[in-house]
Amino acid sequence: MLGKIFLHWYGTQPRICIPDAELAKVILSNNFGFYAKDKPRPSIITMLGGRGLGLVAGLEWVKRRRILSPAFSMDKLKIMISRMAECTISMLDEWKRQAIEAEENSKTIDINKEFQELTADIIAHTAFGSSFVQGKEVFKAQRELQQLCIASAVNIFIPGSQYLPTKSNIKIWKLDWKMKGKLQHIVESRLNSQTRSGSSDCSFGDDLLGVMMDTWKTDSDDKLKMNEIMDECKTFFFAGHETTSTLLTWTIYLLSLHIEWQDKLRQEVLENCGMAIPDADMLSKLKMVNMVLLEALRLYSPLIELLRVALGDMKLGNLLIPKGTCLSIPIAMIHRSKEYWGEDANKFNPLRFINGVGKAAKHPNALLAFSMGPRNCIGQNFAMLEAKTVMTLILQRFSWSLSPDYKHAPANHLTLQPQHGLPVIVKPLQF
After folding, report:
1. Which residues contact 40 (CB under 8 A, 6 or more apart)?
2. Which residues contact 318 (CB under 8 A, 6 or more apart)?
3. Dihedral sign, CA of 391, 394, 398, 402?
4. What is the DSSP secondary structure assignment for residue 205, as one 8-state letter?
5. Per the annotation, which location comes first and is thus the protein's main one (predicted)?
6. pLDDT by residue (tens digit) across 33-56?
7. CB atoms within 10 A of CB 269
8. pLDDT tens digits for range 98-118
9. pLDDT band, residue 6 (cuts 50/70/90)
């Protein structure tokens, strides 16, 4: 075990890297808060929301998770499928139009860009009740903030420098002001719509925003302030579309390389869904689609590492971890470890998931795409349901192949992105 663990440096910060699935389980499954999430840079906090679920800790996190969990129940997620499908079909209709007008009835499309806009549209509709047009300034500002975060990641951070009126900081402040303004407008629009209805008893809605705003009707400690709601909106605007778009992008990439699997999935979709818009029952029958999505998460996990900080002197396996030590759990290394996944660990093999996630590898917790333990991703069911819906609709309507212009260069831009985009040649199956 000790031979696996090593010290590495991120800028000037030392980290202990732990590419061990069992130790990762111990760290992530701890229910007593001994291993806290590492505090990100101020620019990332601004982008994600400092008081959002992803960054709060302790009793505040327990309260927030309790408030938000009902918005992600399977009953509510099933209702969202039709909205996911509506957004997706709108995108696919535009693909078809462009393909028919092009030579050979095919069109080269940057799938990564398309999926970023699609999943942003879906999260806006399903979680916040607004269209992509209304929320596009939020996404645009977050995208610009993301680029600033990426550019500054290799620089040494000096505590307090975020308050200096530098060119970069002024831009961050302006983008944050723009995001807050747009988000406050969305919240106030929902509030005004209920006020016009004349009823004080009805709910603000059964989506994520409605669940948060419903806390205003209680006198308990669960009531969320406006700035807390806006920070949660920031968190889910980003996490709700960024990770799913990444999953869809790499799934399309892998199926471009393995056409035989593209054909298998299409046959499964047509047998169980035909050309109908899928519902929850249909999606539950798509076993091979699910296996391919899991394999895409394994090979190209949106997050390539998880960071935790020991809040006290801890014993981890045979190691003594001093208080304040940063621990890095390298998801990408664990996901491609031959020790856990076999000699074909670097190869695309969805059949490894035929008996479920727990039996796919030699360790039941070797797949960490959604983390695990008490702080696992609250939106993982949403993400998988969305990915299945989108892939089903694409498989019904299109075949695709990788453009010769594609350059394989995965890059960590907070999530794992194709650095030069993903140009794919799409061709409608029906005209």
Report:
1. 48, 55
2. 1, 2
3. negative
4. -
5. membrane
6. 889 888 888 888 888 887 888 888
7. 25
8. 999 988 889 999 999 999 999
9. low
CB 283 within 8 A of CB 389: yes
Report pLDDT digits (tens) over 413-430.
889 999 999 999 999 998
Radius of gyration of the chain from its Cα atoms, rounded to whole angstroms: 22
Picking from 393, 293, 403, 388, the residue whose alpha carbon sits closest to that of residue 92 is 393
Number of Cβ within 10 Å of residue 44's Cβ equals 19
Q: Helices 74-101 and 380-397 meet at what angle, rounded to 10?
A: 30
Q: Which residue has the tokens 């327990």?
A: 62
Cβ 119 vs Cβ 232: under 8 Å: no
Q: Measure the CA–CA gap between 28 and 67, rounded to whole angstroms.
A: 22
Token couple for 92: 């696919």
Q: Determine the Cα–Cα distance for residues 47 and 151; give it in Å rounded to an integer.
A: 14
By DSSP bridging, strand 423-428 and strand 398-402 are: antiparallel
Tokens of 189: 């629009």
Higher pLDDT, residue 139 or 59? 59
Q: Which pTM does this prediction carry? A: 0.91
377 annotated binding-site participant: yes
